[in-house]
Amino acid sequence: MAVRQLSIFIENKKGRLSEAIKNISESDINIRALSIGDSADYGIVRMIVSDLDRARNLLGENILSKITSVVAVKMDDKGGALYKILRTLEEAEIDLHYTYAFTSSKKFGAYVVLRVDDVEATEKLLSDKGFELATDEEISE
To answer: What is the pTM of this model?
Structure first.
């Protein structure tokens, strides 16, 4: 049930981000969520997109990319929702590498993306605790 995330590694220079996602944007692929972490020289752009395989192919060979499994959790779009999820992970001693959130106009208004070592175990824990997980298909709609 894990959601697949596309990560691209780009040089931290003016115009490189727009250059990197130009073909994706022109190909009617919807970028559902985006997070950028940068250093002095390079950035890591993490995206949840409506058509991951096609997006990756459109990037071409000049842009280093990677597909990673992440956990996407549906949450209420209100204060305290994220804390409940993070506290559940903390109590289970699950290491969280990074997280980012996005909203949607769908039934659930918000999602949080979690990068953890063991996606399967984290999904089971969260499901057992009553949290609803998102799928690639739901996010791609």
So the answer is: 0.86
